[in-house]
Write a structure and sequence with these properties.
By secondary structure, this protein is of the alpha+beta class. It contains three helices and four strands, in the order αββββαα.
């Protein structure tokens, strides 16, 4: 009986590096879409000087971050962080304009907003690539676990 596994086994560190590269690519694509916006914030950061938000720094939408989190040796989550107003652009809402077009729009809503899928679109385009990476890693781990249990007997 052959006592080894033929072929390449994807390690945790390699999977983590691949996941970070994937998240970085999605983030860069989202940032390039956000940079093409012509309306909205036109300065990189703005500090509120009075009111409820005094001292709060509001950032331009091109400040998009990502994080790959692990739990018990498995990649648990890939998340993207961006300023709060980014979600309003994604949904096409704000100042009296609801997300659901069937709901009543406020009379004071002067701007007709349209949703722009600046974060969901890059994720959707690359999710199959990420799913293949996870499947490969999970399959390799399962193979190693089964193989090790056979060797121990």
């Amino acid at each position: 009986m052959n006592e080894s596994i033929d072929g390449r086994i994807l390690s945790y560190d390699e999977m983590m590096a691949k996941a970070k590269r994937w998240a970085l690519g999605v983030r860069n694509e989202a940032k390039s879409i956000a940079a093409s916006f012509t309306k909205g914030k036109n300065v990189r950061t703005r500090v509120y000087v009075n009111g409820k938000k005094k001292g709060y720094i509001e950032k331009k939408l091109t400040t998009v971050g990502y994080r790959v989190r692990n739990k018990d040796g498995d990649i648990d989550r890939v998340s993207f962080q961006f300023p709060l107003h980014g979600i309003f652009i994604e949904y096409g809402v704000g100042r009296g304009q609801p997300r659901d077009p069937k709901k009543r729009t406020s009379i004071k809503s002067y701007i007709r907003r349209q949703p722009v899928e600046w974060i969901d679109d890059p994720i959707d385009r690359h999710i199959d690539e990420f799913a293949d990476m996870v499947a490969e890693y999970s399959g390799d781990r399962m193979l190693v676990n089964v193989w090790n249990s056979k060797i121990k007997k």
